[in-house]
Design brief:
about 45% strand; Aldose 1-epimerase; Beta-galactosidase, Chain A, domain 5; mainly beta; 5-stranded antiparallel sheet
Length: about 300
């Protein structure tokens, strides 16, 4: 296990409070590598721990969770219209046909103030016109990560440093352990149906809406969808292991993504401020989310994960 690898340990920041631990990889997109509890039988993981290759390849997609700024999930064809012009993000990552998850996760973050149980990470984006598809707005972002009161708290904040308005969204992308018994509980109003490119087509009913209220099996549907009118609280439960993890988010994390693909071990329940492709989406602002930050304007919100044992 990489937790015992001195080369990896030297690159991470580990926070502790009682038996809880959070391992952070600032150089890998400011991602969390693990959130676990020490026990006599070894670590009890509340988030899916990072794969060893995630460090070698600097791949946040194989970490435990990573920040999403300045937008969440995909932008269709990597372009959108804003303030009288076209924002073209094509070419920022050849792996994806559509722009994905913003740019903060693709860069190292700087470590700021730190205590035994908390740390601040900083990232500042300076647009580079020489880089095709670079985000054309200057902004500053921060994560404050803290273990407190038996819970993991992450406060995401950002400020528009550009001289013009900037479209904006943010979120975090946590992966959870997934077993045959895993259940997800959440109060949601409707689901964004999606096309083959996982881009939203319309907001409407779906059996997953009712299933989430009752405790949806992670294997019930093939999901990579946004949910609207979320109560900003969700619980991931492992009844066979007699434990559960409750996630509570502040506004404007008013949207939730569930990624539970069929026949895969992955499970994400993501608090986000905007639905996929929100800069192109047609609908009322409360349905698609996101915002416009004026020059100098700041935004901040917190997500809390609280473990429970039955």
């Amino acid at each position: 296990m990489w937790l015992d690898d001195p080369a990896i340990v030297a690159t991470v920041v580990t926070l502790s409070a009682g038996a809880q631990r959070v391992v952070i990889a600032p150089e890998v997109g400011g991602a969390l590598a693990a959130f676990y509890e020490t026990t006599p039988d070894g670590p009890l993981h509340w988030l899916r721990p990072a794969a060893p290759a995630a460090f070698a390849e600097r791949d946040p997609l194989r970490m435990a969770s990573f920040p999403l700024l300045p937008y969440c999930n995909r932008i269709r064809d990597a372009r959108f219209e804003f303030d009288g012009g076209t924002i073209d993000l094509a070419g920022n990552d050849a792996r994806f046909a559509h722009a994905l998850h913003g740019n903060a996760w693709r860069h190292p973050w700087q470590v700021g103030a730190r205590t035994e149980s908390s740390v601040e990470l900083h990232f500042e984006h300076e647009p580079d016109s020489r880089l095709r598809g670079d985000w054309p707005f200057r902004y500053r972002a921060q994560q404050r990560i803290e273990l407190s009161g038996g819970a993991l708290h992450i406060t995401l904040s950002a400020q528009n440093l550009a001289a013009r308005p900037m479209p904006f969204g943010m979120g975090h992308h946590p992966y959870y352990p997934r077993t045959a018994q895993t259940r997800v509980y959440a109060e949601v109003g409707a689901m964004w149906h999606a096309d083959a490119d996982v881009l939203p087509t319309h907001l409407g009913p779906h059996p997953a809406v009712a299933a989430l209220r009752e405790g949806m099996s992670a294997d019930a549907f093939d999901l990579d969808n946004n949910f609207a009118n979320w109560s900003r609280e969700a619980t991931i439960a492992w009844p066979d292991e007699h434990r559960r993890l409750t996630m509570i988010a502040d506004a404007p994390f008013d949207h939730m993504v569930v990624f539970a693909p069929a026949n895969e071990a992955q499970l994400c329940v993501e608090p986000v401020t905007n639905t996929t492709d929100c800069f192109n989406a047609v609908g009322m602002r409360e349905q698609v989310g996101g915002c416009v930050l004026q020059p100098g304007e700041k935004i901040a919100a917190t997500v809390k994960w609280t473990p429970h044992k039955n």
